[in-house]
DNA sequence: CGGTCCTTTGATGGTATTCAATACACGTGG
DNA sequence: CCACGTGTATTGAATACCATCAAAGGACCG
């Protein structure tokens, strides 16, 4: 982390709307603000490594953070991708143990860090914080379960189709921009970049058009039937 | 659930040692005991279904509970397997929403149920309960991440080898019994039963011998090198 | 305008799923 | 105690799917 600083007005605003703090009472918010440190990360910077003693809780203010696990021989598998407002679930280590995965900024990112010991301390006195943590974790667990089932049940084109549908809630033709580069999306979906590319080109026959990060969905219903 | 009853002495004992209650103060334990209901499940009985409004928190006292997700066309993917002492993570729905997966007893099982509204109520007043929930959830999230990465990084024989090594912590030849049937294990590892069978027979060449539920590990080091 | 990184496309091999048929284990009842 | 039947496990063959390697094509930024 290059520069650490107290949150300014803009960062406080963003933090207030983040998943973790938005549900807290004013006093807990104040307590958390008190111990927040803001950091600016260049791409590829690591926030923490798998196996390190966990001392900080992390939350994304802007940008994206990729969390992955490593093979003995160096291969990586992404397990989650966090964006603005997200609490980094893998950094919630409440028992004072070690991080279970590695976190890396996927693009220039702004993140908030909280000393874990102090967070435990506050949460031990303030149920709203403990509940907010538990709540965030249930959401993350649900997402992890969904990924796991998705991996095991669906082929690459199906997973991509489902992702696209999740991005455009409207039930008619839409265009939108991918929020990050395709190699990141590939990792998130558990695919090699090549497989994502091939999935896109196969979906072209089902009303999907991709140019750069711009995606056009011609027929959501057709996608749903893949 | 066939019969619901207040916990007797034996069930209270088991509950006290379960992951959720073991870390609580006496008053929180009492409050939770107060609202606990014990149920005896026959195999294949469902505890809850994906999409149903969530009203109960579940914990396994004995037996095993399989949690899975369903495809539109009926195929199932197991996302977690819970045993004695485990809090069923997919039943921790703190926001009053819906269950995100289906839970089914895999064998005759004894489980404890807690009214979710009341749990939320207690946790809102008692930080130790909220923290115990958060703690249990971090563990589950870590396990889910591990499964996800395992699926994406390792082949079937490797996953099986890792599972076996995790069952026999000692670093020398050992024998032990699988705690459940192989089809369950296959689901847990994200494999079709046939693939598990083939993995076992390939591991035979690396010092693993399987007869029924009895497993003999001849050379843990060899397994680690798979 | 040039270089670097990302993405696409092609060819190949390994790996798991699926379907089908057989073998085995276990619990039940004769 | 043995015979039987149901559900579970194994084995085989064919197929589908994805990772990997290699190379060429684009996008983006200095």
From TrEMBL, chains A, B:
Pfam families: cNMP_binding (PF00027), HTH_Crp_2 (PF13545). Residues 20-140 form the Cyclic nucleotide-binding domain. PROSITE patterns: CNMP_BINDING_3 (PS50042), HTH_CRP_2 (PS51063). One of its GO terms (cellular component) is cytosol. PANTHER family: CRP FAMILY TRANSCRIPTIONAL REGULATORY PROTEIN, HTH-TYPE TRANSCRIPTIONAL REGULATOR ARCR. This is CRP-like cAMP-binding protein. The keyword Plastid does not apply. InterPro entries: cNMP-bd_dom, cNMP-bd_dom_sf, Env_Response_Regulators, HTH_CRP, RmlC-like_jellyroll, WH-like_DNA-bd_sf, WH_DNA-bd_sf. Residues 154-221 form the HTH crp-type domain. The lineage of its organism: Bacteria, Pseudomonadati, Pseudomonadota, Alphaproteobacteria, Hyphomicrobiales.
């Amino acid at each position: 982390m290059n520069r650490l600083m107290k949150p300014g007005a803009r960062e406080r605003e963003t933090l207030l709307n983040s998943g973790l703090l938005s549900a807290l009472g004013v006093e807990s918010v104040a307590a958390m603000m008190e111990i927040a440190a803001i950091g600016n990360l260049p791409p590829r910077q690591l926030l923490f490594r798998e196996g390190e003693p966990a001392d900080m809780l992390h939350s994304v203010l802007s940008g994206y953070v990729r969390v992955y696990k490593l093979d003995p021989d160096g291969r990586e598998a992404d397990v989650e991708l966090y964006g603005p407002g997200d609490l980094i679930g893998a950094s919630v280590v409440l028992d004072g143990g070690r991080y279970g995965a590695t976190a890396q900024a996927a693009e220039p990112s702004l993140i908030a860090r909280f000393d874990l010991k102090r967070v435990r301390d506050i949460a031990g006195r303030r149920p709203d914080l403990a509940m907010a943590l538990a709540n965030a974790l249930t959401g993350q667990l649900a997402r992890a379960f969904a990924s796991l089932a998705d991996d095991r049940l669906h082929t690459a084109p199906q997973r991509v189709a489902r992702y696209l549908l999740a991005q455009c809630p409207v039930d008619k033709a839409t265009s939108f921009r991918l929020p990050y580069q395709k190699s990141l999306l590939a990792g998130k979906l558990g695919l090699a970049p090549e497989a994502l590319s091939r999935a896109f080109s196969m979906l072209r026959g089902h009303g999907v058009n991709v140019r750069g990060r711009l995606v056009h969905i011609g027929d959501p219903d057709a996608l749903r039937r893949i």
